[in-house]
Amino acid sequence: MQVIVAESLGMCFGVRDAVAATRSIENPGRVTIYGELVHNEAIRAELSHRGFVETPEDRRDELPETPEVLVTAHGVSDRVRSRLERAGKRVLDTTCPLVKRAHQAARALADEGYHVLIIGQREHVEVRGLAGDLSSYDVVESLDDIREWPHERLGIIAQTTTPTEWAAAVCREIRERNPNARIDWIDTICQPTKDRQTALEALLPKVDAIVVVGGANSNNTRKLASRCRERGVPAYHVQSASDLKPEWFRDCRCVGLTAGTSTLDTTIEEVYRELCSIA
User: Taking the model in full, what pTM does it have?
Assistant: First the structure.
């Protein structure tokens, strides 16, 4: 069995910078990470071992007790940031620059009087952050969420890890349902996500199955696996080499390997070595 690695895969610069920032903090016990730094169990285990406190994703409304609060790569709204600062917290910001760009796009549309439509997962931390400073918005999670809105102007942005084809399909449907509205689309899908999606498309015709490495809660990792299945290629989403099962590949002549943007290089290497061992 041959193993082919995607040309673009694994950790993006935004995640690398966020992880590097935590490793430069001398006293982790003074710091609460506001949610999951990245959706990667290995990194979260490292942070816990070093003494960082982590706010569960579903308890972000609670005020952290530590004097310092670290904003994750997924970002937060300005309202949340202000609330933390008013409480006397020192805010350490590791928001990905491309997520910041999405926030800027949302604010610019809102300032120009647009009703903002956010393509993404309604409960995802990034989407909640994008929506947090908007007074007129809707989140479009599926085509069923699209309707004829009573607004003259509709501005569309997307969660940064949204598949490009899906965003294009949503935009087409919005335009069809709202023919009289002025509609502006600002592409806020990040380049690392696009690169990994393009590399996956190039891989799909060459393989009998694909292993996708990434955290169980990683949106972009799940989207990569979903794309494989949409194209009729079996996909196995694993978090580590120990998740691999030889029987998955019994009838495979060629297997592809890709990984989400929060996956460590060492994890990818371990999975690759295990696949080669199975082969």
Answer: 0.89
